Amino acid sequence: MSLLEVAxxxxxxxxxxxxxxxxxxxxxxxxxxxxxxxxxxxxxxxxMLAGLRPADSGSVxxxxxxxxxxxxxxxxxxxxxxxxxxxxxxxxxxxxxQFFGRLYGIRGSILRERIxxxxxxxxxxxSANVFxxxxxxxxxxxxxxxxxxxxxxxxxxxxxPTVGVDPQSRSHLMDCVRNLSAAGVAVIxxxxxxxxxxAICHRVAIVDxxxxxxxxxxxxxxxxxxxxxxxRVRGVKARLGPRLVGLAEVEPLGEEEVQIVMHRNRxxxxxxxxxxxxxxxxILKQAKAEILSMETKEHDLERLFLELTGRKLRD
Amino acid sequence: xxxxxxxxxxxxxxxxxxxxxxxLVALPLAFISILGFSTGQLFSQADKSHAVxxxxxxxxxxxxxxxxxxxxRGMSALTVSDYPDRSAARSALAEDKIHVLLYIGPKYHxxxxxxxxxxxxxxxxxxxxxxxxxxxxxxxxxxxxxNSSQIVQxxxxxFSLQTMAPSVLDKDPKLKLxxxxxxxxxxGETETETEESTxxxxxxxxxxxxxxxxxxxxxxxxxxxxxxxxxxxFMARSFIGERDMGTLNRLRMAPITRTGLMIGxxxxxxxxxxxxxxxxxxxxxxxxxxxxxxxxxxxxPVMFCTSAxxxxxxxxxxxxxxxxxxVSAYGNFLVLTMAGxxxxxxxxxxxxxxxxxxxxxTPHAWALIAYDQxxxxxxxEMSVVVKSCLVMLAFAGGFFAIGWWRSRDLE
Lengths: 315, 411
What we know:
The complex is a heterodimer.
Chain A: E1 4-13, E2 16-26, E3 31-35, H1 42-49, E4 57-62, E5 65-66, H2 71-75, E6 78-81, H3 93-103, H4 108-121, H5 137-146, E7 155-159, H6 167-182, E8 186-190, H7 194-200, E9 203-208, E10 211-217, H8 218-224, E11 228-234, H9 237-240, E12 249-252, E13 257-262, H10 273-286, E14 290-297, H11 301-309
Chain B: H1 3-16, H2 18-38, H3 45-50, E1 52-58, H4 63-73, E2 78-82, H5 86-94, E3 100-104, H6 108-113, H7 117-121, E4 137-141, H8 149-169, H9 173-196, H10 203-228, H11 231-245, H12 247-253, H13 258-288, H14 299-320, H15 324-342, H16 353-359, H17 363-376, H18 382-406
Parallel strand pairs in B: 1-2, 1-3
Antiparallel strand pairs in B: 3-4
């Protein structure tokens, strides 16, 4: 049995479907990346996982418990690190942790020990008695993180935990996530930083428009996609762009040069890459555009993400 | 219960927020002081500044006229000054240096000499029917007492009668003898009474105290109630702060029920509100000499019920508004409007009957009714106080229920 089991989760707001039949599971000790562009349904999914919003249908089970059967007990095994800095600026780091710890029923020497431990884990022990308002962005993020760990949850949900922090704090936070994983804690990691997800997630799910587009280990996801073809051409984008619609994407490189990108797995065309390449070369010949270089580029998570979710700007 | 932790945390945060605390206590004190000053009341300045200034021109300058002047000088409610002639006194009256001018003409003693015992007892039919004019006296009032000119004339005439009566009675030898005997008996009784009992308050003392009572017995509770309800805006800001910071969601994710969360967020403000009320009433007593009435302990339930209604209203508003701007707009509008119609800004007794009835839709009005009963009545009617408290608790319950229901949508 997985620690988290999400089955056919759905949520709509009027006619808008925010989450459309999500199904996935997370094992104990696993770091699970949840990726998606803005408006993909990640936040709504996390709200439902945290019990803050009821699902229209489907089920969420954490360690065998569902929210229907006992919300209070379930909250004790969940730790949430929200994207907002959910800490009190007019309390010190220690006072913040004391408050959040007591909310979970931790008292006395156990609370003191745990506070000291998490302060040490996130590197805030020397600043324990400093008001949070005087912290840097990175320190606030680390305190925000620490507040979710006091009650020793079995599942931690991290929503953009490294937004706006310096590389040192980011690296420290990622080490903390690795340590949690090593201690058997399941982690759901939501981020727009693909290199972070690549670095720490065991499995990744990409969602868009409420649907699960793909899910698996990084190796599995990237093995499905093969290298794209990149042609550097002397020519003007305005001249070549309209002719290559549906075959390739044209990106300007300078005043005279453009890059023609041919994705192997385009979903908006029925032509195979070989046929498309033939057509593209023919168009370039007719346009008398000089090919300067041709190369293949291996896929990474970001390229896969963009390929699956598209390049269109999201609100 | 985890709501206790939220209460402790909010109390700590409120205690660190000096600006909020000062607004809750210093602002109402400033209001009471300013209004107290404007009505001529503050500390020992009260009686002096409120005394009526009388200018006297004694053209008669006999013992008879001097008796009137001495009588007037003996009144603490009056400040008496002498003027050599009528024109100088009139100038002072025109410049508002004095409020009343009393002119005692040179023929006063002669006119008093013409008065008989019959005239004293038949003022409307005898020689005194012309009142001050027949005694060669005149009273002129300035703008300060212009509307009360006739009352002032009657007062001066009453003083004249009081001072001329002995000289008129002295004209009858038998009556003079009887009066002397009665006077000796009375002096003996008075001495015995004085030894046995504590001195009674003079009429002047009573007058001064009652004026203080009217001002501060009304101002302190009225502005206390008004500012207690300003907690509404602070509560709403606290909720919005939690929401904006994201801590509200963190609280909702913690193992605490919605009711526990609401109670935890409400109690700190109830405590602050009670402390605020207590401080304002203490200040009212120490600074302004207000009287807590014959049964001061009755103030406690009224204070509690008022604060409960105010904080519950705060909870309701907090769950209805979405932004800081809405708190300022709706919160202040609500608080000021309720204060206005309830009688916090002007005494309820000055309001029309209709407005007094309309005011009863606010908890403020019920608080004021209870405070009036406790502070201003020699024997407070318990049923009125209990009814007011119950109505305020009903308001508190209603506001809390709406707030609790609305809190479903908090994010």
